[in-house]
Amino acid sequence: MRIWTAAAVLAAAIAVVPGYSYSQTKDSPKTGTEVDNTRTNKADRSNTGQTPQGQSGTEADRKLAAAVRKAIVGDKSLSSYAHNVKVVTHDGVVTLRGPVRSEDEKSKVAQLAQKVSGVSKVDNQLLVKSGKKILKG
């Protein structure tokens, strides 16, 4: 009986929350400050390279990706762009994707990844962001 009472209270609370709608989808018009994170990144639209969906589920690759991410984020000389690059691992191969601020930063991120124990190869697909444009490099 308690479960049904709790479920009823929860359903009533959801029903009265202002602005909440089950009918709102990613295609619904947005208002105010709502954020729509459903679009694919421009650089990933061609789907020619490794994307986060290609991340291996093996424990070894998950640990390797975490170690590479830790090495990158641990370098405080890098920009927030570099700290947020995509790191995808598969059978010891690390793919780096996303924008960075400079060619030097692009090289440094790849070097940090290569130094991590267990990395057999680094596929550096980082793009240099210059002003408002991303330069392919």
3D structure, described in words:
There is one protein chain. It contains four helices and four strands, in the order H-H-H-E-E-H-E-E. With 137 residues, the chain is α+β, with helices and mostly antiparallel strands. It has a domain at 50-135: 2-Layer Sandwich (Histidine-containing Protein, Chain: A), CATH 3.30.1340.30. Helix 2 (59-74) packs across helix 4. It is elongated. Mean pLDDT is 76; it is low at 20-28 and 35-40.
Give the SSE map.
Elements: H1 2-16, H2 59-74, H3 80-83, E1 86-90, E2 93-100, H4 103-115, E3 121-130, E4 133-135
Parallel strand pairs: 2-3
Antiparallel strand pairs: 1-2, 3-4
Helix pairs in contact: 2-4
Q: Strand-residue fraction?
A: 15-25%
Tell me the total number of β-strands.
4
Number of helices: 4
* The CATH topology of the domain at 50-135: Histidine-containing Protein, Chain: A
User: Which term fits the overall shape?
Assistant: elongated
**Structural Rg:** 21 Å
Q: Assign the CATH class of the domain at 50-135.
A: Alpha Beta
- Overall structural class, as computed from helix and strand content, comes to alpha+beta
Q: Mean pLDDT, as a whole number?
A: 76
Q: Tell me the major beta sheet.
A: 4 strands, mixed
Oligomer: single chain
Low-confidence residue ranges = 20-28, 35-40
Any guess at the CATH architecture of the domain at 50-135?
2-Layer Sandwich
From the N-terminal CA to the C-terminal CA, the straight-line distance is: 64 Å
Helix share, percent: 25-40%
Strand order of the largest sheet: 1-2-3-4
H/E element sequence: HHHEEHEE
